[in-house]
Amino acid sequence: MINAKAVLEEFKSSFGAIYSAYPSSIVTDNKSWFFLAKDDNKKYLFIIQSGESSGLSEEFEAKNIGTIKIGGSDFITVKAGLSSKNLKLLQQIFPYLKPSFCGLKPSFGTGDRLGIITPAHISSFGSRKIFPYLGQQSVRELDKTGRTWQEVISDTLWGVFEAGYKNRFGADADHVKKIEDLDAAIKHGFTMFTIDPSDFILTGADSQDKDRISKRYDSIPEKKEIEKLYLGKKITIGKKVLEFDLDSLKFVAASYFDAIKHVVKCYKFIEQNKKDNFDFEVSMDEIDSAIPPLAHIFIAGELQRNQVNFHNMALRYPGRWEKAVDYIGDIDQFRQELKMHAGIAKKFGPYKLSLHSGSEKFSVYKIFSEESDGLFHIKTSGTSWLESLRTIAVKEPDLFKNIYGFALKSYEQEKKSYHISTELSSIPDIGKFREDKFDHILDLKECRQILHVTFGAILTAVKNGNHIFRDSVYKTLLANETLHCKYITENIDRHLDLLDI
Ligand SMILES: [Zn+2]
Q1: Is the separation of the CB atoms in 490 and 122 below 8 Å?
Q2: How far apart are CA 147 and CA 114, in angstroms?
Q3: Which tens digits make up the pLDDT trace of 16-54?
C-alpha cells in the first residue's frame, strides 16, 4: 500500500536535489497524490499519479518531469505552476479549499500583504476556537501593493493547501468604499464584505457646525418618518437610559444618514450578486470623532429598517488607534464606552463589534473580548509585515538598511492615508545600531509605524523598469521560510493568547 510518506520519500530521492516538499500539504483523491514543493525561487504543485490512472494531469497547466518507482510500480511526476486555472482544478477535487461564511462566532482577521504568510497564520490558529479570516485585504492595501482581489484569494488558498488546513476560514474584502470594487470581490469568492462609508459621514469640526447640521437634516427626505421612529424614544442599556431629543436626532441623522444610504446600496448590490451566504460589516472606524451610543443606535436601527442583515459593526471608539502600536488613551473610558456599545449590539442584534487596526492593541484585547461577551471580530494585518522585515533585518542586513533608508524618504507621502503621529525627527540614525542588531529597530515604536505605512512604496518601488526591493524581499523570505514563519506565528500568538474564549 502506498502512503504519503512513501510518496514523499521517493520524490525526495529522485528530485530532492532541486525541490523540497512541504509534507503538510500532501493529500490524495485515492488515485493521485498532490503536494507543494519549492526550488530556490518558487513554489510548485506536484502531482504523482500512477501510469494507469486517467489523464488527470492533462487538465492542469503542467509538465511531466519523469517517472518514479513507488512500491514496485511506476508513477508519473507532474509539475504545475500555482496558477488560477490549476487552483480551480484543485478546488474541484478538494472542496475545502474555499472560504466560507462565519456568522456570529468570534473571529479574527490576519492580513497578508505579501501573499505568502497564510501557512504561518494557520499555525497560530491551530485548534483555537476562534474563526480565522485568512484572506483579508483593504482596497487601500490593494492599491498600495498593486495586488488584485483574485491574487489575494488565490495566495490565501495556496497557503491553505500548503498547510494542509481543512477547517473553515473566511476571506474579507476590507474597507470597500465604492460599489464598483465589490463586483470583482464577489466574483473571486470573498465571503465577507466590509463597507466603509466614511466619505459620507459628517465628522470632526464639520459635525460641530450647527447651520450645516440643520441644512443637512432638513434635506433628508425621510425626515418625518425618522422623527416618528426616534424622537422621544427612550432606550435602556444596562443602567443608563438614552433618549433622542430633537437636537441629538438632528445631529446623528445629519452626520450618518448619507453614510447609511450608501451602506444600504452596497448591501443590496451584494445580495443580488452573491449566491452564497456572506458576512457583512459596516466600518465607521476611520473617522475623526468617536461614535456616540445614540448614533450607534440610529445607525443600527436604520440599517435594520432597510433590511440590511449585517453581522459586524466597526465603530470609531474613543482614544487613538494608530497603526502598529498599542492603544493610546484612557483605558477606563474606553471600557465604559465599549460597555454601552456592546449593550446596544446585543439589544438590537445580536451582532458583533469589530475592532480595526487591532495589531498590537494588547492593552484592550481582554476588555474587548469580555465586554462583547465573545461577540467580536478583530482585524490585524500590518505587523505581520514588520515580522517579515525582522527576518530580513536578521538575514540580509544590507537589504534591510536600504529598505529602511527608503522608508524614511517615503514616509511623509505615505503617512497621508493613515492616522499616525510619528515624526521623522524622532527616528534614530541606523548608524547607531550594530549590523547584527538591526532587528532591534523593529522594536522601536516610531520605526514600526514608519515601516508599517511605507510597505506599498517599498514593494512597488521601481528603478530602470525593475523593482528595487520586491524580488529580494520575496527571495530572502523564501530562503528563510522557517524563521519567517516563526516570527509571524509568535506575533499572531501574542494577540490570540489574550482573547479569552
Ligand atoms: Zn478599519
Answers
A1: no
A2: 9
A3: 999 999 999 999 998 899 999 999 999 999 999 987 655
In this prediction, the residues of the chain whose per-residue pLDDT falls under 70 are 1, 52-57, 382, 500-501
Query: Rounded to an integer, what distance in angstroms lies between the CA atom of residue 283 and that of residue 316?
Result: 8
| Residue 496 neighbours by CB under 8 Å, 6+ apart | 108, 124, 125, 128, 130
Active-site residue set: 174, 281
Ligand 1 center from residue 148 Cα (angstroms): 19
pLDDT value of residue 379:
95
Query: What is the pTM (predicted TM-score) of this model?
Result: 0.94
What's phi and psi for 234, nearest 5 deg? Answer: -105, 135
Interatomic CA distance for residues 173 and 155, integer angstroms: 14
Alpha helices in 306-454 (DSSP H): 331-348, 362-371, 382-395, 397-414, 445-453
How far is it, in rounded angstroms, from Cα 21 to Cα 431? 40
CA of 316 to the centre of ligand 1 (A): 9
283 CA distance to ligand 1 middle (Å)? 6
- How big is the chain, counted in residues? 501
Question: Long-range contacts: 433-437, Cβ < 8 Å, 24+?
Answer: 435/397, 435/401, 436/397
Q: Give the residue extent of every domain in the chain.
A: 4-83, 197-281+292-375, 384-496
Residue 57, phi then psi, degrees to nearest 5: -65, -20
Write out the residues surrounding ion ligand 1, Cβ under 5 A: 285, 356
From residue 490, alpha-carbon distances to 359, 379, 395, 443, 473 in Å are 13, 17, 18, 14, 20
Burial zone of 30 (CB within 10 Å; 0-12 exposed, 13-18 middle, 19+ buried): exposed
Q: What HEC string does 178-246 produce?
A: CCHHHHHHHHCCCCEEEECCHHHCCCHHHHHCHHHHHHHHHCCCCHHHHHHHHCCCEEEECCEEEECCH
Distance 361 CA to ligand 1 centre (A): 14
Output the pLDDT for position 57: 65
Please report the sign of the dihedral spanned by the C-alpha atoms of residue 349, residue 172, residue 106, residue 497.
negative
CA–centroid distance, 138 to ligand 1, in Å, is 9
Q: What DSSP element (H or E) covers 360?
A: none
What is the per-residue pLDDT for 209?
Answer: 82
What is the distance between the alpha carbons of residues 388 and 226, in angstroms, rounded to a whole number? 50
Q: Are 195 and 266 in contact (CB under 8 A)?
A: yes
Is the Cβ–Cβ distance between 484 and 387 less than 8 Å? yes
